[in-house]
């Protein structure tokens, strides 16, 4: 192609582009000129977009209509306080009185910021643009809508004065809680006309329109509202709108918002929780104008019952225990769906921080955290029958501050199994269990089950097991639900379905279950927490934790300073967390959670039973028995020779490597940094108990191959007889006839590997020993009795016999 022809084609193309551009811009100009300028003369005629409605799980009971009671009152510009006008300009549009409706510099700056982050991080809208967007345009994010916004902003600036536009804006924008315009907001939040607002009150209200749900003074983000208020004040000071003195005074002043007596709202804490979640997903504008229909997981009937029970018992607790507030959260373990949520005694009682949702707040859980630690220990190879010593112990390392935890009753019990330690909520064994488990491992277990609020081990130390961390009651209900669901976790959810204004499904609940814990370990925890006999010494057999007609697992928790009382428990189909205390962290009377929180928990669970069918827990498999006696309930030692466990009283760290409990006995247990801390109290205890140990000489005598086995103690079990059959309520008599070469010195009796007692002498070489079967839980059809026999020559042997139960 020749150069002349190429130039000619380029010329034709350029002419075409110019003509096309002229047509486009001409059409755009005609379109812009024909756009009707909005009329702001009557706000009552301005259309409010279709509102979002929130329903219960049936989709028939309306819990909340976002615009259920819209309040808007127009006031003249002169009645709007100067401070409020200045605050709006300072935070929303500093150059409001200089631009012509659009701040092109701000638009370009926002474009590059958003381009850099790949999402909307900054806006460039002027007050005029926001007025147009909020009043006359839809929320769709299209180029044509943005062009309309720009054009209408220019036309409004041409028709109205700046004061008029600012007045329109402040009379129209949403402030939250269905308050539109500054007069409705002033009346709704402070109970006064806008003209009487103080500087502090004006700035608080100015902080709201950016995100009315998030910054609501009745929601969960009061600290963020306070922070935004102070940002506005600082900008006002920098713009010379207020003096340094006014700035300091308003910064340190907190306004008193009046009670949020919103009519027609049901389950207010839950509704605000849902609305907050919706706003994070879809944005404030969609919630305000998108016409969403939201079907939630809430059981409206149970929710109403829960609110009444919390109000009733919290009022009683205030009189008895100085515990003014309470809350509860109930979850379906099989789905993760939130069934009930009561965030306080009375949502509308502002004096008692009623709008504060305690179920989503961080609180110390006390002993309610212990199941996560014991589950971690079971992961490592420890068992519910593992024995540790409950003795006063200083867990502090050399040169560090001492750490000497107490038990709730100031009693130290000596050897206890992990089952009894957890069931009875004994603190010292729990701290030892955390050390054996590892702090990081325990934190990871809690996270795996749904606890999101814990930091690293350096933040807590061994006090973590006694509730040194902070958790949310809602997440505790969800985490315990994993135990209820045999180790399978369902993420917490509050929504079943969302449809938009055109009835299109935006999201729908789908079950996404994953394994978070070995199912047998989950069943072990459940087996312990539902073992009423095991917890009876601490709680009595008829405590509020016990339901004769249902299998229910439960764990209480009380913080050391008595600021929090917890109980979290579950059936296979319902997990329930209850908290009681004071939102302002003042202490209650010194009563454990079994008195403060458990009656409320018990009362509501009885209501749950009316709707949820009885289901039984799956039993754990305990067939995997470790070889070491200390892991199987034998606290007298883990040195075994020819089937005989020698009496050697030591802490568990003498017998196990904490990281490999089922491995070999440590060659040098003193290498463990906690060994001396644990060992010394145990040795002192053994001496005070006058326990006769198998010393080194005796061990050598037994182990010596020259020792004649025919000289070892011989005896015959005369009773019980082979044909004997026992019931769980019977007393068993064990009769032994001595047939030994040397006189017997001592007989030790064991049942289910638990020490029963000792006999030291007998007439005519006949020994009789009695014990009650009903002192033991989980009796199988066949159990073993074991007798260890010592003679005066230092020889030791053992007898075993099966006994049978009907």
Give the gist of this structure.
This protein is an alpha+beta fold and 806 residues long.
What does this protein structure show overall?
With 806 residues, the protein is an alpha+beta fold. The chain folds into five domains: 1-34; 70-261, Penicillin binding protein transpeptidase fold (Orthogonal Bundle), CATH 1.10.3810; 362-489 and 516-578, DD-peptidase/beta-lactamase superfamily (Beta-lactamase, 3-Layer(aba) Sandwich), CATH 3.40.710; 629-692, no CATH class; 709-805, Immunoglobulins (Immunoglobulin-like). It has 25 helices and 27 strands. The chain has a five-stranded mixed beta sheet with strand order 2-1-6-12-13, with helices on one face. A hairpin with a 2-residue loop joins strand 18 and strand 19. Helix 2 (82-92) packs across helix 9 (222-238). The longest helix is centred in the N-terminal third of the chain and has 32 residues, at 3-34.
List the helices and strands and how they pair.
Elements: H1 3-34, E1 53-55, E2 62-65, E3 71-72, H2 82-92, H3 104-117, H4 127-136, H5 143-159, H6 162-172, E4 174-176, E5 179-180, H7 182-190, H8 199-207, H9 222-238, H10 244-251, H11 268-282, H12 284-289, E6 293-296, H13 300-321, E7 325-331, E8 338-342, H14 370-380, E9 387-390, E10 414-417, H15 418-423, H16 427-437, H17 439-448, H18 473-484, E11 488-489, E12 495-499, E13 505-508, E14 514-515, H19 519-529, H20 532-539, E15 553-558, E16 564-571, E17 574-581, H21 593-596, H22 598-609, E18 640-641, E19 644-645, H23 652-655, H24 675-688, H25 696-703, E20 715-719, E21 725-726, E22 731-738, E23 744-751, E24 754-759, E25 766-772, E26 782-791, E27 796-805
Parallel strand pairs: 1-6, 3-5, 21-27
Antiparallel strand pairs: 1-2, 4-5, 6-12, 7-8, 7-17, 9-10, 11-14, 12-13, 15-16, 16-17, 18-19, 20-22, 22-25, 23-24, 23-26, 26-27
Helix pairs in contact: 2-8, 2-9, 4-5, 4-6, 8-9, 9-10, 13-22, 14-16, 14-17, 14-19
């Amino acid at each position: 192609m020749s150069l002349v022809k190429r130039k000619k084609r380029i010329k034709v193309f350029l002419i075409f582009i110019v003509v096309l551009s002229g047509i486009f811009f001409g059409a755009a100009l005609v379109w812009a000129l024909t756009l009707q300028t909005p009329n702001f003369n009557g706000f009552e005629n301005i259309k409010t977009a279709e509102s979002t409605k929130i329903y219960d799980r049936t989709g028939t009971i309306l819990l909340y209509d976002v615009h259920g009671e819209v309040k808007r009152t127009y006031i003249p510009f002169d009645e709007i306080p100067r401070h409020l006008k200045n605050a709006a300009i300072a935070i929303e549009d500093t150059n409001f009185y200089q631009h012509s409706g659009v701040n092109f510099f701000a638009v370009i700056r926002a474009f590059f910021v958003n381009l850099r982050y790949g999402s909307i991080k900054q806006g460039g809208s002027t007050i005029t643009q926001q007025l147009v967007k909020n009043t006359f345009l839809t929320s769709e994010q299209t180029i044509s809508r943005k062009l309309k916004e720009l054009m209408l902003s220019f036309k409004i600036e041409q028709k109205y004065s700046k004061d008029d536009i600012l007045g329109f804006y402040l009379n129209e924008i949403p402030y939250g809680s269905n308050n539109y315009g500054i007069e409705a907001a002033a009346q709704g939040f402070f109970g006064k006309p806008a003209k009487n607002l103080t500087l502090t009150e004006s700035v608080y209200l100015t902080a709201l329109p950016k995100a009315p749900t998030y910054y609501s003074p009745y929601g969960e983000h009061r600290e963020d509202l306070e922070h935004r208020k102070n940002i506005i004040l600082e900008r006002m000071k920098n713009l010379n709108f207020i003096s340094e003195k006014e700035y300091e005074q308003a910064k340190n002043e907190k306004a008193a918002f009046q009670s949020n007596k919103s009519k027609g709202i049901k389950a207010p804490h839950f509704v605000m929780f849902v609305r907050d979640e919706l706003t994070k997903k879809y944005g404030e504008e969609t919630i305000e104008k998108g016409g969403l229909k939201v079907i939630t997981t809430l059981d409206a009937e149970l929710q109403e019952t829960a609110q009444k029970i919390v109000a009733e018992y919290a009022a009683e607790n205030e009189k008895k225990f100085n515990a003014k507030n309470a809350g509860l959260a109930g979850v379906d373990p099989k789905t993760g769906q939130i069934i009930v949520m009561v965030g306080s005694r009375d949502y509308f009682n502002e004096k008692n921080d009623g709008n504060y949702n305690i179920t989503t707040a961080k609180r110390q859980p006390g002993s309610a955290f212990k199941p996560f630690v014991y589950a971690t220990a079971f992961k490592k190879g420890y068992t519910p029958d593992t024995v540790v010593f409950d003795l006063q112990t200083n867990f502090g390392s050399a040169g560090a501050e001492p750490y000497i935890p107490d038990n709730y009753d100031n009693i130290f019990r000596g050897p206890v199994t992990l089952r009894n330690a957890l069931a009875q909520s004994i603190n010292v064994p729990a701290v030892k269990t955390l050390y054996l488990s590892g702090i990081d491992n325990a934190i990871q277990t809690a996270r795996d089950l749904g606890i999101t609020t814990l930091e690293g081990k350096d933040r807590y130390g061994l006090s973590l097991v006694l509730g040194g961390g902070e958790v949310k009651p809602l997440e505790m209900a969800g985490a315990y639900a994993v135990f209820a669901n045999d180790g399978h976790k369902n993420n917490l959810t509050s929504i079943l379905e969302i449809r938009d204004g055109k009835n299109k499904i935006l999201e729908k609940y789908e079950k996404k279950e994953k394994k978070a814990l070995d199912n047998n370990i989950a069943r072990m925890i459940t087996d312990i927490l539902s073992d009423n006999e095991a917890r009876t010494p601490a709680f009595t057999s008829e405590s509020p934790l016990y339901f004769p007609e249902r299998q229910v697992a439960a764990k209480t928790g009380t913080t050391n300073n008595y600021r929090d009382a917890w109980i979290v428990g579950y059936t296979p189909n319902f997990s329930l967390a209850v908290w009681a205390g004071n939102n302002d962290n003042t202490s209650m009377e010194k009563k454990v959670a079994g008195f403060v929180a458990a009656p409320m928990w018990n009362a509501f669970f009885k209501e749950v039973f009316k709707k949820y069918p009885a289901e039984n827990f799956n039993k754990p498999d305990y067939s995997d028995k470790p070889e070491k006696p200390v892991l199987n309930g034998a606290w007298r030692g883990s040195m075994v020779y020819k089937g005989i466990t020698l009496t050697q009283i030591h802490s568990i760290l003498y017998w196990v490597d904490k990281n490999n409990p089922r491995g070999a006995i440590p060659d040098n247990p003193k290498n463990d940094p906690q060994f001396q801390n644990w060992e010394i109290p145990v040795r002192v205890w053994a001496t005070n108990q006058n326990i006769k140990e198998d010393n080194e000489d005796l061990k050598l005598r037994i182990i010596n191959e020259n020792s004649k086995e025919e000289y070892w103690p011989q005896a015959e079990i005369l009773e019980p007889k082979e044909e004997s059959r026992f019931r769980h309520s019977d007393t068993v008599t064990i009769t032994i006839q001595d047939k030994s070469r040397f006189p017997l010195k001592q007989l030790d009796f064991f049942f289910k590997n638990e020490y029963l007692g000792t006999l030291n002498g007998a007439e005519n070489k006949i020994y009789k020993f009695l014990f009650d079967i009903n002192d033991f839980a989980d009796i199988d059809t066949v159990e073993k009795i074991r007798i260890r026999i010592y003679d005066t020559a230092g020889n030791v042997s053992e007898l075993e016999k099966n006994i049978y139960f009907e």
